[in-house]
Design brief:
heterodimer, A: 170 residues, mainly alpha, 2 domains, flat, B: 506 residues, two-stranded antiparallel sheet, 24 helices, 75% helix, globular
């Protein structure tokens, strides 16, 4: 009988969940019990997180073991992470890096409209350049992205700050 | 009592219909339809973003706007499913099964008309359900104590995890318990101890629900859309809209059944519109004389899916208003918005805010009417929205996510939370974990925590009342039943027993 292959997605996900559950359980057990204050032992802060992390630990271990056994619940449950290609990976990495640069480095550190216009311009150009089905020539793409970036930055700023009185950074 | 409710409802309908609020209904529903149609903008994200725009509005107007956006978005996503074969919102996945084949056959106009009337009829059935069930449930919930609320939270997580993970309940439960654990971050309510905070003041306040929601549904969607292959609009024939719209009324059994199923699925905590559509679709297929047509362009299948998902919207409002527990992810945002605007949903709603309750029913009515009229009149112009390329749209959607997360409290930390949950949601979805139980866990976490500790303090640590009090015992039994019937050996045994029984009968 041929040995079943490990279901790597389930195995790794189960491992991550088990470790996270175990870490949270340790942390919950370390939480204060306020005995000196005469607190009711059934109201201590670590009770609920302790129970939840223990359950998560058990569920994670079950998933890990299922992954090790190579058992697949159903063909419909096959995760999409097993169906990536090179183009998907490039687009995903580009998107993650772009949003991190905007959300962590630009937003709140420079005027909102400038940060937003820069991000929208760079994102549009970048996404089109890695798109195999691009139809626009480079000069047209740059002009279009520039117009989109400026209009989007002004419009979002106007709607949020002037129309609905929401404060934005910068 | 019923006549009293009807007069309250009619008064609320007249109040909206004969005031400037009717203009709000039109623009908010149109905004919702647009949001729903754009792949990457879900109903949850739409309602969350618009919540930030309603801070300066009157509470009733704010909730009106949000309900219109919610109903419009769930409906709008159906167009994307029909014309692009990708659901505009997760609630429209079942609509693509028959909607897209219809569009490919050159019957896109007919498909969109059926989706429109189906959504309208579904909303109306759900509205009736809301008006009838919510007052009864609110009265029943007055008997709930901390024991029952604890079990209700567990029941919500277990059932939502089981239903949303489709074939893999284990992953649904992991997502749900992960969400509950996330809700533990920050200061707890009994001893004011900051859990899992490590001295960071931002963490001591816990994760805000709206940044988490915007991240898990908006930012994740940006990642998902950019990862997948680009889609193209089917240049469908958009004639015969009105005649097809009227033909839907003839399938009374289908839309009534789907409306009832959708409403029920909406009531189940955290499950919401997508399951409303799937279960309605499956039930319609089982009952149909033309089972083979399902998946090949069946108008009955499309009608069932679109009726089911829109019926779930008012259904999801039932637990929001009566138990302060969301029936779906967009309803969780709506619940947060109600609290932000000083409204207090819960078992006391029919005693302290009966007028508000009937206003909500009237809001559903007007939003459904606006959806029907706008959907039928603007069939052709609305197609233009689908021609926008994702490369030009996703950057702007991410900016909206960022602004939406920031605007709630003006904290940069919330932007990081949004991005963090976007990445977590992306990895979870790619690995086959559903997001909805996690979000439900974040909402139900404080309810579970407070009621568990309160109950144990009351009984001096005796866990017996959790299973001996009548309502608690029933909910606990249901939880046990769901878990047992999700175990693969039990499911296999039940399937074998069913097959043997069917064989014996025939």
């Amino acid at each position: 009988m041929a040995a079943r292959r490990i279901n790597r997605t389930d195995f790794l996900a189960g491992l991550a969940v088990t470790i996270a559950g175990a870490a949270a359980l340790v942390e919950a057990l370390r939480m204060p019990r306020f005995e000196t204050r005469g607190a009711d032992p059934f109201t201590v802060p670590g009770l609920t997180p302790g129970l939840l992390s223990a359950v998560l630990c058990v569920l994670g271990a079950v998933l890990l073991l299922r992954g090790l056994s190579g058992h697949m619940v159903a063909e419909g449950a096959r995760p999409s992470i097993t169906r990536w290609d090179r183009a998907s990976a490039i687009r995903s990495i580009f998107t993650v890096v772009s949003v991190l640069v905007y959300g962590v480095l630009l937003f709140g550190r420079m005027p909102f409209m400038l940060a937003t216009a820069l991000f929208v311009f760079a994102f549009t150009i970048g996404a089109e350049l890695i798109n195999a089905e691009r139809r626009l020539s480079t000069p047209m793409l740059v002009i279009g992205a520039l117009v989109l970036a400026v209009v989007a930055a002004f419009a979002i700023n106007f709607v949020f700050t002037d129309l609905f009185l929401v404060r934005l950074p910068g | 009592m019923a006549m009293d409710g009807l007069s309250h409802f009619l008064a609320a309908v007249a109040e909206i219909g004969f005031s400037a609020q009717i203009i709000v209904v039109v623009w908010a529903t149109l905004l919702g339809i647009t949001v729903g149609m754009i792949p990457g903008l879900t109903a949850t994200l739409g309602v969350a973003l618009v919540t930030t725009l309603t801070f300066t509005m009157e509470p009733n107007t704010a909730i009106l706007v949000l309900i219109c956006v919610y109903i419009g978005a769930i409906y709008g996503g159906g167009r994307t499913a029909i014309l692009l074969n990708i659901p505009g919102t997760p609630a429209n996945a079942a609509s693509a099964l028959d909607g897209f084949p219809l569009a490919r056959k050159g019957r896109a106009g007919e498909a969109m008309a059926i989706a429109t009337t189906g959504s309208f009829l579904g909303s109306l059935v759900g509205m009736v359900g809301l008006a009838l069930v919510a007052p009864w449930l609110a009265e029943f919930a007055l008997d709930f104590t901390s024991f029952e609320f604890f079990w209700l939270a567990v029941f919500g997580i277990v059932l939502c995890g089981q239903l949303t993970a489709m074939d893999d309940a284990l992953k649904g439960w992991i997502a749900g318990f992960f969400g509950l654990l996330i809700a533990m971050v920050g200061q707890e309510s009994i001893h004011a101890y900051a859990r899992f905070s490590y001295g960071f003041p931002d963490l001591e306040a816990g994760f805000g629900l709206l940044p988490v929601l915007v991240g898990a549904f908006g930012c994740t969607e940006v990642f998902m859309v950019m990862r997948q292959e680009a889609t193209r609009v089917i240049a469908g024939n958009v004639t015969g809209v009105l005649s097809a719209a009227f033909s839907s009324f003839r399938h009374a059994r289908t839309w009534l059944r789907s409306g009832l199923i959708g409403t029920f699925m909406g009531v189940v905590p955290g499950v919401g519109e997508d399951m409303g559509a799937w279960v309605s679709y499956a039930a319609a297929k089982r009952a149909s004389k033309h089972k083979d047509a399902f998946g090949q362009g069946s108008t009955e299948g499309l009608l069932a899916a679109e009726t089911g998902n829109n019926a779930a919207v008012p259904g999801a409002l039932i637990p929001v208003l009566t138990l302060a527990i969301p029936g779906s992810a967009p309803a969780a945002v709506l619940l947060a918005a109600m609290i932000i605007h000083g409204l207090r949903p819960g078992p006391l709603i029919m005693i302290t805010q009966a007028d508000f309750f009937y206003s909500v029913v009237a809001m559903v009515f007007w939003a459904s009417c606006a959806m029907l009229v706008l959907g039928l009149l603007l069939t052709r112009p609305l197609l233009l929205i689908l021609r926008v390329r994702r490369e030009w749209l996703m950057g702007i959607i991410f900016v909206l996510c960022t602004v939406g997360a920031f605007a709630i409290a003006g904290r940069i930390f919330d932007v990081w939370v949004m991005i963090g949950f976007g990445l977590v949601g992306f990895v979870m979805r790619e690995a086959g974990f559903p997001i909805a139980p996690m979000i439900l866990g974040v909402v139900l976490g404080p309810i579970l925590d407070n009621n568990l500790r309160r109950s144990l303090a009351l009984t001096q640590g005796d866990p017996l009342p959790f299973v001996t009090r009548p309502i608690s015992a029933v909910i606990a039994f249901l939880v046990l039943l769901i878990i047992v019937f999700s175990l693969p050996p039990v499911r296999r045994g039940a399937a074998a027993l069913k097959a043997r029984f069917a064989g014996g009968v025939s």
